[in-house]
Design brief:
The protein is an alpha+beta fold. It is built from eleven helices and ten strands.
């Protein structure tokens, strides 16, 4: 598979770039933050995403979607990252859609996603770091289950219509066994969401499940076999977050290069200084390597290749490192003004930091790759 976009994918990228750049630039994020918007994103913009067909990229044509793949979803996510656009696209149109594909839940939730009316949130993490284990209990109760426990860092969890919840239905020596994935209506009795604003001005929720009752139909897949749908969800989420990170890094790099070309010191543009040119060239190289890793992961996911897990881990780790370099170099090359709220470069640093932690940071994925290789 060649590591470049096809003509159709390039056309989609151009369309997404124009749309997101015009409708949700960094000033859109700044306005939501300054207004202390309770949702953390624009519902009108979410409906516009639907009108553009973006929310149906991963939904099959037989269910009203476009029937495209992760490469195309990543094209949109990169533009979201480039503009720091607050959007439920990653959690809803990518991760949730992948988890619900081929299940009875698709018929219920896909129409709302296609219309830009439904928002889904992912209730996976329970501790400070991703991958620290799932202990939320789901005990059998009547013809269903009773959920008890807590989740945190649930982006859009306070305003979501659908919560995809990973719970433990039995305890085994192997932590991957005994997991079950549930589709939970956000209005369920006993469920409490406490929103908190993160460093990048996005809003995530702490969720408390106080004996939340769900029926057996809430199960996604099979009881105790949740590792399969959870794996689909996490592969899609990690590949999507990698694409968004790529956009954040690229946006910060473009802003920095533009500043180097304009800012004058000692009567000359600072971009003419060889030391800064070397740093810019190094940054460009790192971003291009990360871009290749992301595209490879997306292509393998679309092909259903067994190597996709490894490629996704590589992509998430590499984009985290490359984007961290991009935003740090951006702050440094802007000088002192880079730390002020007046300049947008600081927003890229904050968004990059949050995205790097989501669904596992570089160290987490490096460890996973090492374990898979037998170390």
């Amino acid at each position: 598979m060649p590591l470049y976009l096809t003509e159709e994918q390039t056309m989609l990228r151009d369309t997404a770039r124009d749309f997101v750049g015009e409708q949700a630039p960094v000033s859109h994020l700044r306005a939501l933050r300054d207004a202390n918007d309770a949702d953390g994103f624009s519902r009108d913009l979410w409906k516009q995403f639907a009108e553009m067909g973006f929310t149906g990229i991963l939904i099959g044509e037989d269910q009203g979607g476009l029937g495209l793949g992760h490469v195309e979803a990543g094209v949109v996510l990169e533009e979201i990252g480039r503009n720091l656009s607050p959007s439920p696209f990653l959690s809803t149109a990518v991760a949730a859609v992948e988890a619900l594909k081929g299940t009875p839940h698709a018929a219920r939730w896909f129409p709302g996603i296609l219309a830009g009316e439904t928002v889904a949130a992912l209730a996976i993490d329970e501790r400070a770091k991703h991958g620290s284990g799932i202990t939320l209990r789901a005990e059998r109760s009547g013809n269903g289950f009773r959920l008890s426990g807590a989740k945190q860092f649930v982006t859009h969890g306070h305003v979501a219509d659908l919560l995809i919840v990973a719970a433990r239905t039995s305890f085994n020596d192997d932590e991957d066994q005994g997991l079950t994935l549930f589709a939970v209506d956000a209005g369920a009795a006993g469920l409490t969401a406490t929103p908190e604003r993160l460093a990048d001005a996005s809003i995530a929720a702490r969720l408390t499940f106080d004996e939340v009752e769900v029926d057996a139909d809430a199960v996604i897949g099979e009881v105790d076999q949740g590792i399969a749908p959870l794996g689909r969800l996490l592969r899609a989420a990690r590949a999507g977050a990698s694409a968004e990170l790529l956009g954040v890094g690229a946006g910060a790099m473009d802003m920095t290069i533009g500043y180097l070309k304009e800012r004058k010191q000692f009567g000359v543009r600072i971009g003419s200084f060889q030391a800064l040119q070397h740093r810019a060239a190094h940054l460009y190289s790192e971003m291009e390597v990360a871009r290749a890793a992301v595209l490879k992961a997306q292509q393998l996911l679309d092909a259903g290749d067994a190597r996709a897990d490894q490629a996704v881990a590589v992509a998430k780790a590499m984009t985290g490192l490359a984007t961290t370099l991009s935003v740090q170099e951006g702050i440094q090359m802007h000088g002192g003004i880079g730390m002020t709220d007046e300049y947008d470069i600081g927003f890229y640093m904050k968004r990059g930091r949050v995205l790097t932690e989501m669904f596992g940071d570089a160290n987490y994925h490096a460890d996973q790759l090492a374990r898979a290789a037998g170390y």
